[in-house]
């Protein structure tokens, strides 16, 4: 069955190739090899992330260029090579395939290189940001399909992301994600500021319907936001711009926890409606950046309920 359908594909492809049609003859032992990147969303998907066209293009073109070069350099007998194909771009799976007519030679060659290139394949689909918070709680795997599963799976590089423990803050609240409906978007963005000396870094608030069983009181109100931020850099933080849903933005002065707490905070007292799609922007004096303030590679943000006993933690990065 499988061989027949491969042969059929080969014939159809050959037919579409027009002028090459006569010269391409797939032997019956043609073998299709696909390299995939697969995304496994968590059961409770607080911050839905899916592959987009850019992720797919980047994955397909990098895999094609790396593997086709190897095959060419080694005098491989590939008929088409790995060809980017938009029809293989799905929200949770992107793939690129090749049909080889000399399976043994090419598979032996590919096996070594697929293992060697695995980190590059992960980088290609994630834009080099495999440890970005958008993949938090997601599975991400580069896999290989080959005829008869002859090729071994590449190593699981994403596991190496690890999770550094969040910075210790002097706080007795429960930081579990999902114990209240509020969460900060996994990516924050830079917006132009009216002052040329500063930049605005904006964090969007998402409100989830699906939350964990929780004993947090008054979760219809988002009382305040706290950022873990280097307090020694305090002078670079100029203001907050708070933009509730359905309200006009207000600018307030930054406030900090006790010396050494490294907590930068703003009172919100937003209802769920006001919090839905709201943004909290931090105005930072250049050349300092939000990421540097946050300690280097991602920001830790806490969203508090009114009695301050619950402060689910979200991480966010540019
Ligand atoms: C934590 O905060 C309490 C009250 O704000 C303070 O008394 C205590 O010294 C702090 N502990 C540390 C380790 O900073
Ligand atoms: C925080 O809340 C979660 C969910 O309700 C609960 O499972 C967990 O035990 C709590 N943690 C602490 C330290 O109270």
Task: Provide an overview of this structure.
- Pfam families: DUF3707.
- Residues 170-312 form the Pherophorin domain.
- Residues 1-21 form the signal peptide.
- The protein is an alpha+beta fold.
- It has two domains: 5-149, Alpha-Beta Plaits; 182-316, Immunoglobulin-like (Sandwich).
- Helices cover 21% and strands 28% of the residues.
- It is built from five helices and 14 strands.
- It has helices at 2-16, 53-73, 103-126, 272-275, 290-293; strands at 31-40, 93-100, 139-146, 182-184, 189-191, 198-207, 221-228, 237-243, 250-252, 255-256, 263-271, 279-285, 299-304, 313-316.
- Strands 4, 5, 6, 8, 9 and 12 form a six-stranded antiparallel beta sheet that branches. A five-stranded antiparallel beta sheet has the order 10-11-7-13-14.
- A hairpin with a 6-residue loop joins β8 (237-243) and β9.
- α2 runs antiparallel to α3.
- The radius of gyration is 25 Å and the shape is elongated.
- The two termini are 48 Å apart.
- The chain binds 2-acetamido-2-deoxy-beta-D-glucopyranose (NAG) (2 copies).
- Residues 174, 176, 179, 212-214 line the site of one 2-acetamido-2-deoxy-beta-D-glucopyranose.
């Amino acid at each position: 069955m499988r061989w027949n359908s491969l042969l059929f594909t080969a014939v159809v492809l050959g037919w579409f190739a027009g002028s090459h049609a006569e010269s391409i003859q797939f032997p019956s032992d043609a073998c299709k090899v696909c390299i995939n990147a697969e995304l496994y969303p968590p059961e409770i998907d607080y911050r839905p992330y899916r592959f987009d066209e850019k992720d797919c293009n980047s994955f397909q073109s990098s895999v094609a260029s790396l593997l086709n070069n190897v095959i060419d350099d080694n005098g491989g007998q590939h008929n088409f090579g790995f060809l980017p194909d938009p029809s293989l771009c799905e929200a949770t799976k992107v793939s690129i395939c090749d049909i080889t007519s000399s399976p043994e030679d090419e598979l032996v060659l590919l096996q070594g290189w697929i293992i060697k290139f695995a980190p590059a394949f992960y980088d290609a689909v994630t834009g080099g940001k495999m440890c970005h918070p958008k993949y938090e709680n997601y599975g991400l795997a580069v896999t290989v399909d080959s005829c008869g599963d002859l090729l071994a799976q590449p190593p699981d590089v994403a596991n190496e992301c690890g999770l550094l423990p969040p910075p210790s803050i002097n706080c007795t609240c429960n930081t579990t994600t999902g114990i209240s409906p509020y969460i900060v978007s996994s990516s924050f963005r830079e917006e132009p500021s009216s002052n040329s000396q500063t930049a605005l870094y904006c964090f969007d608030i998402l409100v989830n319907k699906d939350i964990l069983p929780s004993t947090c009181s008054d979760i219809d109100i988002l009382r305040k936001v706290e950022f873990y931020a280097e307090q020694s850099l305090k002078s670079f933080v100029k203001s907050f711009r708070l933009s509730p849903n359905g309200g006009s933005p207000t600018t307030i002065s930054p406030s900090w926890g006790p010396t050494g707490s490294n907590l930068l905070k703003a009172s919100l007292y937003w209802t769920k409606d006001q919090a839905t799609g709201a943004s909290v922007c931090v105005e930072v004096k250049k050349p300092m950046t939000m990421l540097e303030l946050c300690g280097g590679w991602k920001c830790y943000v806490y969203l508090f309920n009114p009695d301050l006993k619950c402060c689910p933690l979200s991480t966010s990065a540019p």
